[in-house]
Every structure is written in C-alpha cells, then in structure tokens.
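Input/output pair, single chain:
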Amino acid sequence: MRPRKTAGFAVNVRLGAVGTSASACRCSSLMSRLRGSDEGSGTANGVMLIAVIGVLMSVAAVGGHLMIVSSRAQSAADQAAIAGAEAAWREAPNPCLNSANAALLNAGTVISCTVDDQDVIVKVQVRTSVPIVDGITKRARAGPEDCT
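Output:
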C-alpha cells in the first residue's frame, strides 16, 4: 500500500487505519483555503511599512530644519545685539539701525530693539520653510562689561 498525496499531506488509504482519509481531506482543503486568502497581504503590509517610514522621515526632516533655523535665529540675534551695543558704545545716533542691518545680513528681522544705557536688547525672527511654523524668534542682549 502506498500513501497517496492530497494537497501536500500524505494520506493512508487503508481501511481500518486510525483516522479517515475524508477528515484529512477536509483539513487540507481548509488549509489551502486559508493560505489562498493571504494572497496579496504582503504587498499591503509592504506599502504600509513604506508609508510609515516616509512619514517618520518627514517628521525627522522637519524637526532637523527647525533646529537649524533656531540656531540661525540665535546667531542672528547675538550678532544684531553686538552690532547695536558697539554702535551704542560709540554713541551712534541709532544703535537699533545697526542691529537691524546685522540681523538682515543673517536672514533675520528685528522684532524689537531696546537700548538700556549702553546695553542693547533685541528680538530677532528668522522665517522657516515649514508651513505650520512661520518663524522662530530668539532674544539676545549685549553691551560693555563694567571692569571696575
């Protein structure tokens, strides 16, 4: 007696054997139907994985861009404050004009400028490329230090 292959399973066709061939056929039929229903699920999972990775990479790129713009805004504010403080120390008529020029050279815009004795306090905004965040504002203060 030789075993007969049915849908990937060996079935013994001898009478009186433990288990019948009909039950084995039913199990193999059920298994083949279940395997057939998974057709294409790997493609759908792959597309979802690529979409999730794309979203995560976009979020990381936006976060990196905002960190870079924040650093540029702080640099522009520092340089604008130093330029204004230097002009105030030389007793120039409008130190805030020097601050505005320094900020403009660093792609920033002076939002506010205050002269307190020879100290200059500025707020500078640098625009971003992110539609949700219009710009990043940083503050800086500069002036001569009393040496006494």
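The longest strand covers residues 119-127. The mean pLDDT is 84.
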